[in-house]
């Protein structure tokens, strides 16, 4: 079995709290069952790419808390910023006071996208930020309708459930959902109706399907916004063909429709660019961010041109905790770490290394139907070889691979409409040695799972 003992990528800050007392933890049953379990690990602390259990076992965490801990677990600079701010002020509500971390973060966020004139609005979660983006698009355009893409995931509040179609479990029990929401086809080249093909020579009919949506369901002049994940997340880590987003941007401009980029999972360096839209030189009207923005503290937001943000009359949107001062301090430290440690560049380099390794595994494991990824957002799609057209989803195999990897102390996750995709989301601080270790563990896990 692969030896999973590697040195941590970061060290705990000076003055870190000692290990907890041996007093028994409360029984796990206090957590409601609605939280479906990925693992049953009892974690004491985290260091860089690693989680450490109460008994001292080290797990290579390539889930990153579902794409959150981009700077790694408990990065010393982020932890220090949180501690310093918490000792001064924990909450200063946005309607009532100004605070330095919030002002600095708003100023810095003006410059994280190319070009001038950007502004930010801060909230708490990805779903809240999507809700804000929809409200802003509707009030700015005076139009009611929002179009999403099949396979997209945007949250679990009522409005965001209506926009989500990644998997039935997210919305299937909760009808009726808010209306004036429609969905159209996303270009999924591996599962195209005419057969799998190279995304560089895409033959998917997504544009024809969008045009059909306009002719069958809703006039384009009633559409406020089209909402898109630049790379589908929960839907299977599906990277679009090169011409997709630029052409979608042309179509939205043609009809006066706003383009909202949901970068909750792709943002903050995840794909090897600060935001994924930069791979295709596409400028959205609104960009939504969360997850990696504050290295684990609750914070989210949107970016848009200031004149667009000012379409909101004062008091028409807000929230008690949006732009919390401790979260803003963490977010400023996160930006510092990403820049100073060149984490976007590391994501691109380690992603290329990982993708090459996964493609090597696919050559010896026939149940891997597709390997795909962008930066450190990577996926294996599992099939039943020889069944149907050769692309029959194999969720049971994906589940076995996850279990075998966990047995070897590697944490990875599932994704995809049929849960037949294994997604790999390393922290952006991960090292070349850690990636090589993960590939070796995956090779063993695939063999043990019967892939």
Structural account:
- The chain has 451 residues and is an alpha/beta fold.
- The chain is 31% helix and 15% strand.
- It is built from twelve helices and 15 strands.
- The strands form three sheets. It has a seven-stranded mixed beta sheet with strand order 4-10-9-8-7-5-6, with helices on both faces.
- α3 packs across α9.
- The longest helix has 20 residues, at 343-362.
- It is globular and about 60 Å long.
- Mean pLDDT is 95; it is low at 10-18.
Give descriptors for this structure.
2 domains; single chain; Aspartate Aminotransferase, domain 2; Aspartate Aminotransferase, domain 1; alpha/beta; 31% helix; 15 strands; four-stranded mixed β-sheet; 451 residues
SSE layout and pairings?
Layout: E1 43-47, E2 50-53, E3 58-61, H1 64-67, H2 76-86, H3 100-109, E4 118-123, H4 126-141, E5 145-149, H5 158-163, E6 181-184, H6 206-216, E7 223-228, H7 244-254, E8 258-262, E9 286-289, E10 300-305, H8 306-309, H9 325-340, H10 343-362, E11 368-373, E12 378-382, H11 395-407, E13 410-411, E14 413-415, E15 421-424, H12 432-449
Parallel strand pairs: 3-13, 5-6, 5-7, 7-8, 8-9
Antiparallel strand pairs: 1-2, 2-3, 4-10, 9-10, 11-12, 12-15, 14-15
Helix pairs in contact: 2-9, 3-9, 10-12, 11-12
Strand order of the largest sheet: 4-10-9-8-7-5-6
The chain-level mean pLDDT equals 95
Q: Judging by the overall fold, what is the CATH architecture of the largest domain?
A: 3-Layer(aba) Sandwich
Q: Tell me about the biggest sheet? A: 7 strands, mixed
- Overall strand count: 15
Specify the CATH class of the largest domain. Alpha Beta
How big is the Rg? 22 Å
CATH fold label of the largest domain: Aspartate Aminotransferase, domain 2
| Order of helix and strand elements from N to C terminus | EEEHHHEHEHEHEHEEEHHHEEHEEEH
Strand content: 15-25%
Alpha-beta content class: alpha/beta
In helices, the fraction of residues equals: 25-40%
Q: Tell me, briefly, the overall form.
A: globular
The CATH H-level homologous superfamily of the largest domain: Type I PLP-dependent aspartate aminotransferase-like (Major domain)
| Poorly predicted spans | 10-18
Number of separate helices: 12
Note the gap between the termini. 17 Å
The tally of domains stands at: 2
């Amino acid at each position: 079995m692969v030896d999973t003992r590697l040195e941590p990528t970061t060290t705990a800050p000076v003055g870190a709290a000692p290990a907890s007392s041996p007093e028994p933890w409360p029984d796990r049953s206090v957590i409601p069952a609605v939280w479906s379990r990925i693992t049953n690990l009892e974690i004491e602390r985290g260091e860089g790419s690693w989680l450490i259990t109460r008994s001292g076992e080290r797990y290579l965490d390539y889930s990153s808390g579902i794409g959150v801990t981009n700077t790694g677990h408990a990065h010393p600079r982020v932890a220090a910023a949180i501690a310093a701010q918490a000792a001064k002020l924990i909450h200063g509500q946005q309607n009532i006071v100004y605070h330095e971390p919030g002002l600095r973060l708003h100023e810095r966020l003006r410059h994280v996208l190319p070009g001038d004139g950007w502004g930010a609005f801060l909230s708490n979660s990805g779903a809240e930020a999507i809700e804000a983006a929809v409200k802003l698009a509707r009030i700015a355009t005076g139009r009611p309708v929002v179009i999403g893409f099949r396979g997209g995931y945007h949250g679990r509040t009522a409005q965001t459930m209506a926009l989500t179609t990644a998997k039935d479990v997210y919305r299937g029990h909760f009808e009726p959902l808010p209306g004036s929401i429609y969905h159209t086809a996303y270009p999924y080249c591996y599962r195209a109706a005419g057969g799998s093909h190279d995304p560089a020579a895409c033959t998917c009919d997504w544009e024809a399907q969008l045009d059909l949506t306009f002719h069958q369901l809703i006039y384009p002049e009633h559409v406020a916004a089209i909402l898109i994940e630049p790379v589908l997340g929960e839907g299977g880590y599906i990277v679009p063909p090169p011409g997709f987003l630029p052409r979608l941007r042309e179509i939205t401009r043609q009809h006066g429709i706003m383009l909202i980029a949901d970068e909750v999972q792709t943002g903050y360096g995840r794909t090897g660019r600060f935001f994924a839209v930069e791979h295709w030189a596409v400028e959205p009207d609104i960009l939504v961010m969360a997850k990696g923005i504050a290295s684990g503290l609750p914070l989210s937001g949107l970016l848009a041109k200031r004149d667009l943000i000012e379409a909101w009359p004062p008091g028409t949107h807000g929230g008690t905790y949006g732009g919390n001062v401790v979260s803003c301090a963490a977010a400023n430290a996160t930006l510092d770490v990403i820049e100073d440690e060149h984490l976007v560049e590391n994501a691109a380099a380690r992603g290329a290394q990982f993708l090459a390794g996964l493609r090597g595994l696919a050559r010896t494991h026939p149940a891997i139907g597709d390997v795909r990824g962008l930066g450190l957002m990577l996926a294996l799609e599992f099939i039943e070889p020889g069944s149907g057209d050769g692309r029959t989803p194999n969720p049971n195999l994906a589940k076995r691979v996850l279990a075998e990897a966990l047995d070897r102390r590697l944490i990875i996750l599932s994704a995809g409409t049929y849960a037949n995709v294994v997604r790999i989301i390393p922290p952006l601080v991960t090292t070349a040695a850690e990636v090589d270790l993960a590939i070796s563990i995956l090779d063993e896990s695939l063999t043990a799972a019967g892939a």
